[in-house]
Please model this.
Amino acid sequence: MQLAVHESGGGARTAILIHGIMSDSRAWHRVTAELEAQGFRVLAVDLAGHGRSPRAVHYSPAGWAGDVVETLEPLLDGPPDIVMGHSLGGLVASLVADRLAPRAAIYIDPAFSFPKGVKGWAFKAFFAVAPRPKRSALVRMNPKWSAVDVDIELATLRDWDKRTILGFTDTRPLVPPARLVAPTLVVLAEKSLLITAKVARQLRHQGMTVETVQGTGHTVFRDDHAGFMDAVLGWLRELAPVTPEPVPVGIRSAA
Model:
């Protein structure tokens, strides 16, 4: 399936952004602007059933990832520099990373696990049957969001296909990547919806860098945008290779 893509920026590096369930590419507006300022070309997709992308007959993490690869491969000259995803998009991004081999992967409160038992069923039922919230309810639930983010959330909810929740009927695919294809950063909310302390330890054991942005909920980059970007950009700077200082003409190494 060909997805809607919001392409912006003209930098030499490429970042792929994949949103969470109920959302779409508009949620990344501030992250996109900062990445553009850092010299990135940004490709932010609308997953099937979200935003301007078509609806699917069936939804699944593998299906969403396949759509992303099919849509973006023709737009890439080589491996992307970053694949970044939030929540459901974090899980999808990990599957995309397996196929596109990015230079770095960033997963934000990713759906690498799911509550078990009654809690898990209640979680899915909430998404399936809860009415789309009014603006006042969104503000109460997300007191740290900007007015612009509240407006965007209301718009994305109107464009969201509730049947996407059926993509979580089988929660067995909601697991961390089996292997790391690139240096990986996991940015967690202080009160993560999906990643327990046990799962966070597992991610670190697998070689991922795991950081928590204090005072944030599930949508970390909306609750504390500055703190989120500090974590991301600081980590990316650590990955950048150190370029040796040029040796002035006429000066030879002592070796």
